[in-house]
């Protein structure tokens, strides 16, 4: 079976990704074979007891960690859009992010804060963290992750504006490489009303405040 996955240019939408059957046993077997070789190549003994199931575990873990390729964020948002006469900012903050950098395939993790101002429709609140996961559970860079969340909400919900702030620690900067343990990367992306200082400041104040 052909397990190659076409990764499209960054501005292609999800339909540009070649669909794979993530739960196909042949795919897991094929990945298992590759991870078995990887274990040998890094100087391990894949035959020792503790590693016997490791190639299979790695295969399943990697397929899970990239399952965002299977999901369509637009469909998720559209499945729970409700007509509502509410025109103030809606903020969902402190959404856990678990992603993997596309350069080293090491995790980056932290929090996303997402806001929008409705324009006749609100979206089911749980759908916001769900679309964060759709884009995070792929190979990413933090900047693109931020923009993809913003663009999806803007294009699907057509709100007055969208704001996205993401704060993450990158394991490729702490476990290896430059080895800085405490650096946090912040990215942001805005549309519409959030391009104005007043709205953006309100959003930034709301995400920095804590519930007592
Ligand atoms: N802009 C951006 N860079 C990232 C992200 N995740 C990892 N990187 C960076 O990608 C870069 C890849 O740089 P290279 O010089 O090709 O790779 P490298 O030799 O492994 O670099 P070092 O990490 O500096 O050792 C590094 O600077 C990483 O810190 C991300 O989400 N956004
Ligand atoms: Zn990296």
TrEMBL record:
Keywords: GTP-binding, Hydrolase, Metal-binding, Nucleotide-binding, One-carbon metabolism, Zinc. It catalyses: GTP + H2O = 7,8-dihydroneopterin 3'-triphosphate + formate + H(+). Pathway: Cofactor biosynthesis; 7,8-dihydroneopterin triphosphate biosynthesis; 7,8-dihydroneopterin triphosphate from GTP: step 1/1. Coiled coil: none annotated. GO terms for molecular function: GTP cyclohydrolase I activity. The keyword Cytoplasm does not apply. Zn(2+) binds at residues 101, 104, 172. Pfam families: GTP_cyclohydroI (PF01227). Residues 33-207 form the GTP cyclohydrolase I domain. Its EC number is 3.5.4.16. NCBIfam families: folE, PRK09347.1-2, PRK09347.1-3. Homopolymer. Belongs to the GTP cyclohydrolase I family. This is GTP cyclohydrolase 1. The gene is folE.
